[in-house]
Amino acid sequence: MITDNGIEIFTALQDLVHPQRTALLVYDMQVGIIPQIKEGAEILSKVSSLLQATRRAGIRTIFTRHMSLPPELMGSFQYRMAMAWQGKQNPAEISSPFLRDSQAFQLSPELQPLPSEAIFDKLSMSAFEGTPLQFTLRDCGIRSLLLVGIALEIGIEPTCRQAADLGIIPILIRDACGAGNAEAANHCVASLQHMGDTIVTDLATISALVSAIPVPGTSDSR
């Protein structure tokens, strides 16, 4: 970290990955989404491992879930998106796979949130749109956001971009983010790296930094 004009400028991961400055966003790790990608089980295992480490370190955690509306509440955009994703030309043929009370909508049993953690449900791709995420992070003084989950090319990339636009540093843990289309995901990562406001890293690097954080309540905790 360097300082100029009284402003702290975070230049290294070890300065950002700290309970006072970062939070973890687990994006759409739902029962009906994880099996849709080939590496779903692997991503679930990695996210679970990181979650255990961040919990020990006292890092705040927020989960998102993608929600479908019943057709009676769908407007033009919702119909267009459902038709595109489901390959339908007739809007009467679409289904709502992630209705509020459906099994597909639920988070994976391996990732059940603690009472101290939040779940934000959304219709949009960015985790910020239509949710209290921005308010929550700013109110807690969070400067950066660790991102893991599914799917990188669908919702994680726009979440990174909106975080950066809001002045929150996105930290994309690349190998803990699944994708339905690997080529599209690689293009997204290349674009984020080109822009320069997202830090792209890997699970081993973040896990090492998180493991070095003293456990809250111990004598050497910061």
Automatic annotation (TrEMBL):
Keyword Hydrolase among record annotations: yes
Source domain of life: Bacteria
DNA repair as UniProt keyword: no
GO molecular function: hydrolase activity
Stored CDD domains: cysteine_hydrolases
Domain Isochorismatase-like: 22-201
UniProt keyword terms in alphabetical order: Hydrolase
The protein's name in its UniProt record: Nicotinamidase-related amidase
Organism of origin: Tunturiibacter lichenicola
